[in-house]
Amino acid sequence: MRARSLITVLSLCVPLLALVNIAVGSVPISLGEVLSALTGGGVDEVSRQIVLMSRLPQSLTAVACGAGLAVAGLEMQTLFGNPLAGPSVLGVSSAASLGVAVLVLLSGAMGFGLLSGFSLAGNTLLTLAATLGALVAMGLIALLSTRLRDNVTLLVAGVLLGYISTAVVGVLKYFSSEEDVHTYVIWGLGSFSRVTGGQVWVFVALMALLLPLSALLVKPLNILLLGEDYARNLGLNVARARTLCVCSAGVLTAVCTAYCGPVMFLGLAVPHICRRVFRTADHRTLLPATAVCGALLALVCNLIARLPGLEGALPVNSVTALIGAPVALRVILRRK
After folding, report:
1. CA dist., res. 92 & res. 161, Å (int)
2. This prediction's pTM
3. Is the dihedral of CA 94, 275, 21, 326 positive or negative?
4. Does residue 118 or residue 282 have the better pLDDT?
């Protein structure tokens, strides 16, 4: 009962914090004006454009990305029994970065300017390239999960795949122009602000579909906590459950990386925070709690990145690490 009440309270905090995210920025907008813009009330056109075209999509993206990466991290940590496992452990995010690096290099080599300044066409191409790279990696990992019976071996294979992708990216960067490398580095810093227009609704719809599907894995995840041998004795098809968990976490990571860049730290820290706060290993509680806490932490990091007085916005990856790392470290040390 306590856990359910706490999840309800945290869930109510998500829209409130999202409203604060919309109101705070280089151009301050009162909460009354924000609500008027969202409900179609009377508000000046400049504030309406800022709210509807910039800050609302950014807040929705932060909520969806934070929830998706947190759930993916929880699934990976449970599957591999490793507290250091995260969404990037299978090399999916590295493969997505490889897809973007290939696109940036080819675009620069052919003299196209689609990626300059992250225009709408450039952002769309970057998203498609990251998605393609992530899906290729997902296919390889899914194939390996059917061939390899040991989780540790699968984990090592995913890490090696990530190293290969990173190595290829390094070679591509070496032969790229300075402008192309700069474009790639900016994308790699992660951002919730590049998902605009119709893209944000596609992204939110995908996450709204994938997150409930992840909830179907609650029972297998709980059984896997007992160990593979005991899980088999209980009648669980371990190979099938492992493939489903890998695919679920991989697709969540692929979609988030494609739209927001490699924002990976959320998936590592949030599950640890939730285990400490809720004092349980039951995924019936942990999975929804992790999704809600991931959304909240992403909104907090997005708010800090856009504090008034800052020129532009700080890199999301840097803010998530600076905020999440001390919290996760404190949780781990208190658990000894």
Report:
1. 8
2. 0.86
3. negative
4. 282
